[in-house]
Automatic annotation (TrEMBL):
Signal peptide: none annotated. InterPro entries: Nucleotide-bd_a/b_plait_sf (IPR012677), RBD_domain_sf (IPR035979), RRM_dom (IPR000504). Residues 11-89 form the RRM domain. Keywords: RNA-binding. The keyword Signal does not apply. One of its GO terms (cellular component) is mRNA cleavage and polyadenylation specificity factor complex. It comes from the Eukaryota. The keyword RNA-binding applies. It comes from Bicosoecida sp. CB-2014. Gene3D superfamilies: 3.30.70.330. One of its GO terms (molecular function) is mRNA binding. SUPFAM superfamilies: RNA-binding domain, RBD. The lineage of its organism: Eukaryota, Sar, Stramenopiles, Bigyra, Opalozoa. This is RRM domain-containing protein.
């Protein structure tokens, strides 16, 4: 039986503590430093249309996503330290999360 790496890790990373003024092109520039970015999804507040302060970045493979978690967690952007870790593999559409600021 093959080991299921996907259970432990995915090709996507969660990025938290993003400054509100950081846009998708800026995030792409940062996250492309470890390898090609397949997609970036900045989460927006549907009521205000403003960013919620977190995003998901998808890479082509687990190794690149792992590199992002190792090398970009704690990266300082706009005076804030980014939190970068593997996104949970169960992609839910909305809900959960909470916390505030």
């Amino acid at each position: 039986r093959p080991v299921r790496l996907a259970a432990m890790a995915s090709r996507g990373v969660f990025v938290g503590n993003i400054p509100y003024e950081a846009d998708e092109p800026k995030l792409r520039e940062i996250f492309s430093s470890v390898g090609p970015v397949r997609a970036i999804r900045v989460q927006m507040d549907p009521e205000t249309g403003k960013p919620k302060g977190y995003a998901f970045v998808d890479y082509d493979d687990i190794a690149t996503a792992e590199s992002a978690t190792r090398n970009l967690n704690g990266y300082e952007l706009g005076g804030r330290s980014l939190r970068v870790h593997f996104a949970s593999s169960g992609r839910s559409s909305g809900g959960g999360g909470g916390g505030g600021g």
